[in-house]
Design goal:
Layout (H helix, E strand, L loop, with lengths): L10 H11 L10 H15 L17 H4 L5 E5 L5 H6 L4 E5 L3 H10 L24 H7 L12 E6 L4 H11 L5 E7 L5 H8 L2 E6 L6 E9 L10 E7 L3 E7 L11 H13 L9 E5 L5 H10 L3 E5 L3 H13 L5 E3 L13 H6 L2 E6 L4 E2 L2 E2 L2 H12 L1 E12 L5 H7 L3 E6 L3 E7 L2
Parallel strand pairs: 1-2, 1-3, 3-4, 9-10, 9-12, 10-11, 12-15
Antiparallel strand pairs: 4-6, 5-6, 7-8, 13-14, 15-17, 16-17
Length: about 425
């Protein structure tokens, strides 16, 4: 594959290199190749060296007036490292959306955004589905919200997610506000499903040349009557112990409207430990609440009067709220959890959340495609910090990870409640 979209000695190539030279600190940061590709594409389009597909225009007619400043505004979705934000802000006004609150913080540091809210941070406080209701905020930015308002164009850049539903919801939320959507990612992950989702909302879909290991798929010419999917998705999870539960899930929510096998085993084990009568947990905390099914089921099973879910994902938080509401269960759900200082009882985030009689925990064991255990350990420490005296933490994990010793160290005495060929459930109490 080519090393660049641009001819080496072209004016656009020189301008792209000059812009990148302003950020020597980013040269070895993962994610730079995709950011460089976006810079080349925008500058190449502006200088009429590239057509809409990112290929050499080769003398084709391109309206100079229409492309001189395109795009005027860019919405960047899920730029985990903040590199795209840092570079694209030199080319247009940028608004930012991240599903994961930790990626939002990382991107803010790398992109060198100010601590006080500015127009680059506005959309980070919302879930992606709410963008369809943000016309007043777009207007407040002075942004055109469609291609038909003068010549001002708003583009969106979506970093290709693993889940097709996450991409579908992002496109559905953005289509009415932008003239172009660029989905960018590794070539081996850019399936025809991307083309299909873009074609639901755009009359033209182009696939760029590959640059290194990366590629763009570009939707333009927004349809006036798009056939876009609606979110959250609706489903029902049946469980013999708690009955049928309505489930709602936004596109980026782990497991969608299904119950994952680990959470099901955890609930089965929990139900066996609950007394038939007498004292049951009065409060429940779900760390990493996902679609909210486990939290809602635990609330129904225990009859607890207080329930709280937290998750790093805005899609999960929005899903868990919708799931609880659909089942008439009153819970609080929060997206902002600081794991690093979670074991410090003087930390405001710890004090504000309070303590709980029961904490349920199904920690992730991978970040993207990389297996990691640091998040799980941070969640275990968080569980210990929020455990009431005499309370218990019930954790499920992939058996090969062997977390029992860590649970003993971070929380207290632990015993196995259940195990199958894939998962293990451990109950831990404060030491």
């Amino acid at each position: 594959m080519s090393a660049s979209l641009l001819l080496p000695d072209s004016a656009a190539a020189h301008r792209s290199r000059d812009l990148l030279a302003e950020f020597p600190q980013l040269h070895d940061v993962p994610g730079l190749p995709q950011a460089r590709m976006l810079v080349e594409y925008i500058i190449g389009r502006r200088l009429r060296e590239l057509d809409v597909s990112g290929r050499d225009a080769a003398g084709a007619f391109i309206d100079a007036e229409a492309t001189a400043d395109v795009p005027h505004h860019i919405i960047v979705v899920d730029d985990a490292k903040g590199i795209q934000i840092a570079l694209l802000r030199r080319l247009a006004e940028v608004a930012v959306y991240h599903d994961r609150i930790d990626e939002s913080r990382t991107a803010a540091l790398i992109a060198d955004r100010p601590e006080s809210p500015d127009r680059s941070e506005l959309f980070d406080v919302h879930h992606i589905s709410e963008l369809s209701q943000l016309g007043t905020e777009f207007a407040g930015l002075g942004w055109a919200t469609s291609a038909g308002e003068g010549n001002a164009e708003t583009w969106a850049v979506i970093n290709a997610p693993k889940a097709a539903n996450a991409l579908a919801e992002s496109i559905a939320a953005l289509q009415a506000h932008v003239s172009t959507i660029i989905v960018i990612g590794r070539s081996d992950a850019m399936s025809r499903a991307v083309n299909k989702e873009l074609s639901r909302g755009f009359g033209r879909v182009d696939v760029s040349p590959g640059v290194g290991k990366h590629r763009m798929i570009i939707g333009s010419r927004p349809l006036s009557s798009p056939s876009l999917p609606s979110f959250p998705k609706h489903g029902v999870i049946a469980h013999s112990g708690v009955g049928d539960l309505e489930v709602r899930a936004h596109g980026a929510c782990f497991s969608g409207v299904r119950s994952d096998e680990g959470s099901t085993l955890l609930l089965d084990a929990l139900l066996e430990t609950l007394p038939d009568a007498g004292a049951k947990p009065e409060s429940v905390l779900d760390l990493g609440c996902g679609n909210g099914w486990l939290l809602t089921a635990a609330m129904r099973a225990t009859g607890a009067s207080r329930g709280t879910g937290v998750d790093v994902s805005k899609a999960a938080v929005a899903s868990a709220r919708a799931t609880a509401e659909a089942n008439g269960v009153d819970v609080d759900v929060d997206v902002d959890i600081v794991l690093g200082d979670a074991a410090n009882p003087e930390d405001p985030a710890v004090a504000g959340l309070g303590t709980f009689d029961l904490v349920v925990l199904n920690p992730p064991f991978h970040q993207g495609t990389t297996i990691e255990t640091e998040t799980a350990e941070a969640l275990m420490a968080t569980a210990a910090a929020h455990l009431s005296p005499g309370g218990q933490v019930v954790t499920v994990f992939n058996t090969h990870l062997r977390y029992r010793d860590r649970l003993e160290t971070l929380i207290g005495p632990s015993e196995q409640l259940a195990r199958n060929t894939k998962f293990t459930v451990i109950s831990s109490r404060a030491g």
